[in-house]
Every structure is written in C-alpha cells, then in structure tokens.
C-alpha cells in the first residue's frame, strides 16, 4: 500500500531536469512540510551494490555512502562553490612554494572510543596512506604522491611536506577516500583488521552499531559530536537516531520501498524508474560526480587487439553517445564533452574528439589491416576483431549502456562479447588481465589532477602500458606543477588532448548518482563526489 503522505506530496516530474541542474549547485534537496528540523527517527537507505572490504581507500559506491558518515577530514570542500572550509582543522597555510601545508587542529575533538584527535594520529593516517605498510598488507594510496613526511611540532599542529609542488594536493586532503582520519586502535591493525567495519573508530557524527555481512550496516548517532564542517546547516549532534543501510539489488524493489515507506532513500534509481518516482510524489536528485567521466579506458597489454592507435580511434568514432543517452539513459546523465564531468574545476572541452563518424571508423580499421569477414566481423591474420567487455557491477546503467555500444561497434565490424560477472568474479578477472582490453570506470574527486592519479605510470597506471608513455607522464607532471589557475587550465587541456589523440579513453556518459527520496526526507546532502553526508538530514515524524 502506498502511504497517504507519498500520494499527497508535490509531483516533480515536470521539473525533473531542474532538480538535476540544482543538484550540481548545492547537492542538497529539500522536501515540503515543516521548516524546523526535528531530532529522532531511523532512516533506511537502500543500495543496489553489496558491501566489500572496508579499508579506507575502498571507493566502492555502496561502501563510501556509509564510510563518509564515520571518518572525517581536515577540510571540507563545498560542493557548490568548490571552496575549502574548516573541518577537523580550524585553519591552514600553504608555504615554501607549495611544498609545505600547515594545519592547526580544532580543540577538544575526540574519536568515538574517547581518544583525542591530535597531530600524532593525523600523521599516522597520512603516513599509512602515502607509504603503506608491506608487513601488514597495506598498500600505498595512489592519491598520495611526492610525500616528504608529516611533522608534529605540537599536539595541535600538523605540517605536511611534499617533495615537489602538487596543485591538486589540497583538494585530495578533503577527499573521502584519500584523507579520512581514523583512530589509533584502527591503525594498529593489519589489513584484515582494517577491512572490518566494526573496527572503524572515527570522529564522525555516526558510529557503527552493527554489520550484517555484505548486505547491511546500521549506524547510530554520536550524541557528543560538535565539530561539523563550516557551512553545515547546524552544529551539535546529528538529527537522525539511526541509519540502516541495506543491499537491495532489484531496482523495482527499491522504488517500491520508497512508496511504501520501507525505505526513505534509494541510490541508483534506474533511468526507466525516474518518472515513476516523481509521478508517485517522490523526489529525484541527480548529483553529477565531479572527477573523471565514466569511460572505457584502454588496457595496452601484449594480448590486446587495440594496441594499434588506429583501432582505438576507430572505436571512438564508432561510439554514438547521443544515441546511448536517448536509448537507455536520461537527462540525468549528461553527454560527455571531455575527460572530466561538467562542474569539475579546470576541466577542458574535448568534444571535437567525440564526433560519431562511422565512415571514419571503417576507414581507420581498413587502414589498420582489419578486413570485413563473411559475417561482417573484421579479420586480420586469421584473428577476429573481438573485444570482451564485462558489465561493471559498480554502475547501475553499465549493462544497458554496453549493450547499445555492442550494437554500434558491430556496424563497424567489431565484435563485442558481453558478460556479467559478479563483483568477486569481476575483480578476479581484472587481476588476470590477459583478455581485459577495455575497463569501464572513473575516479571521482573534484580536482582535474585526478587524471594524473589514473594515468600516471607511478600511480594507478590504468593503461597497464609497458614501456610507459613518457610523454603522458610529462604532461601529468606539468599540470601538477602549475600553480596559476590559467596556466594549469591550459596544462589540463594539453593532457586531455593527448589522452584523446592517443585513443586512451572512450567516454560514455558523465558519471551521475541518482537518488530517490521519500517526501518525509529533508536536508539530504552529498559531498562533491556524490557520497551521502547525512549529518544534516532529518525526517518528518509521524509517518512516511
């Protein structure tokens, strides 16, 4: 049965596109009803993806919706303005030509186990991120580079030193996966211990109450919390008593739960369900995920049929993004115009590379020696031009998008074999790599330097290229070293131009998180990469 409040709420289907636009400004949505927030209540949050290991650098969408409400950072990046604001640190300075970052911590902050936040524990966190710990199985975080160490002149002062300037570094200190700070009892554990959410000890407004395997987490409010980031809608403890996160894979069930009141928020509303949410009186929030656009990135190993640049450029020309959007997506997912999502600071416009041109695709494949066979699939030296693609389990729309792409590429004579592995199978196959030629994905952080994290040969090295592309590394270093915004914008454009001229990336759509909200949800907010920040969220009491 659909509740009366749901039926009576204002229908927003006519302004769905406006909501999507507003999401990019403030990443906040308000409902009707009382304007004065109230304390209490349990919010149930349905997520389509099961939870995995809980180490802090795990950026799995489902995990990070939870973790963002437990661990906190020195600074908060306002998702509307991009401005950095105090959080665990009350002030900071950047000196020595961009090599030194000095932070002064707020007073009287404690972790959920009662231990104090001080400079020593901040240093331990940053050392672990930047250096890893081989003996305990903890690897280096690719977001951290050029780390010269952290000094602690006193209990409230943290001095981070870099070995060379990195214009993106200040933003990475606000990033949920790169710089969240957890307590000493957590840091004392090995990788297995750190991967258990029940061992997380943070400074956030919520703490872990229980974990139900890979399918559920319950957080409860921390009543002594009083150091929310500047710019929050209130100070003091959070409004909600509890948050119950549940894995619910079926999209129709998530939508139905919003209607019945079994859930108040559902993540990853499918494009075909967006209208039904609004028509039934719910609210839709489409949040652009600042950082890399969702793309297919080339893996250039010795087995790859796309090691030839001409083949990669042909696949780019054979991709009709407007048709993908019209067929299986919605206006919530903007058509990409560059390597970075619209709204990401300093992004370039590289749309000249994305023209759908099937004639050019066929010309390039002909020139690369791939001839059309009897069944329409191209052949060279007795081998078919066949590319395995896996449906990425992290993305709601992956399968439908790749099915359209499969059809488009076949018109150019390229065979796509599409499979749908489980999350565990997907990650195992990615590690083997022999028939893994294109990877769907993106890194999300509101800084153009995220391209360096992905493509840098000393970072994630997504191309898996041997020998490495030295020119690519030079362009990454040049944008990181540029401190002047105008100069850095040019350097980012140079980097994007090279990535696409080499055919390294085939953008599919601007990554977006689409949330469905019941009408009794107010003050829902995300940070700049669409991870839920539920501190300001409250519920109308007395029914759904």
From TrEMBL:
InterPro entries: Peptide/Ni-bd, SBP_5, SBP_5_dom. GO terms for biological process: dipeptide transport. Residues 83-445 form the Solute-binding protein family domain. Belongs to the bacterial solute-binding protein 5 family. Part of the ABC transporter complex GsiABCD involved in glutathione import. Binds glutathione. Its main location: periplasm. It comes from Gordonia sp. MP11Mi. Keywords: Periplasm, Signal, Transport. This is Glutathione-binding protein GsiB. Residues 1-23 form the signal peptide. The keyword Iron does not apply. GO terms for cellular component: ATP-binding cassette (ABC) transporter complex; outer membrane-bounded periplasmic space. It is found in: Periplasm. GO terms for molecular function: peptide transmembrane transporter activity.
